[in-house]
Design brief:
Elements: H1 13-44, H2 56-86, H3 92-125, H4 128-157
Helix pairs in contact: 1-2, 1-3, 2-3, 3-4
Length: 159
């Protein structure tokens, strides 16, 4: 356990909720841009001449990746709709908690989208085995960067 003092703020609960929601919106802006570009790219693939040459496995990867991208877009835009509907209803605490869950779920679907897109392209360009190996490596990297490192720090800082 670390002996370093924890960073604290002197703020009211309302100020904390406002700050947390602002930080969540910044996270959403980053995730939304990437997933929307990837989704747009995926929507164009079936209209390419070589799409008819995909194997059944490749089409399965494509469909999984496309649906995962669509779910990611819906999840990452849901907090905006939620805020719009609940604006000035005194439910900021609910909005912040729900947005937190949406962001976590959205990162999972985004990881599936990224990995699926890479596996699809590599399965077309190189070998099936190499595509699966790289996809597994990317999944491991996402788990390390997005889950293991943050959780290890959280565990170290929790009294």
């Amino acid at each position: 356990m670390s002996d370093a003092p924890r960073y604290t703020r002197n703020e009211t609960e309302a100020q904390k909720l406002d700050r947390n929601f602002t930080e969540q919106l910044q996270e959403l802006r980053i995730a939304q841009a990437g997933v929307q570009i990837l989704f747009a790219f995926l929507l164009t693939i079936p209209f390419q001449q070589r799409f008819t040459l995909l194997t059944g496995f490749q089409r399965g990867i494509y469909l999984t990746t496309l649906v995962s991208a669509a779910v990611s877009v819906l999840i990452f835009t849901a907090p905006v709709a939620l805020h719009r509907v609940l604006f000035q209803e005194g439910l900021k605490d609910f909005i912040v908690r729900y947005t937190d869950r949406l962001l976590t779920t959205g990162l999972v679907t985004l990881a599936i989208t990224i990995i699926g897109g890479v596996v699809l392209v590599l399965d077309v360009l190189v070998t099936h085995t190499r595509a699966i190996q790289v996809g597994g490596g990317l999944a491991l990297l996402a788990l390390i960067l997005w889950v293991a490192v943050p959780w290890s720090q959280k565990r170290r800082r929790t009294p």
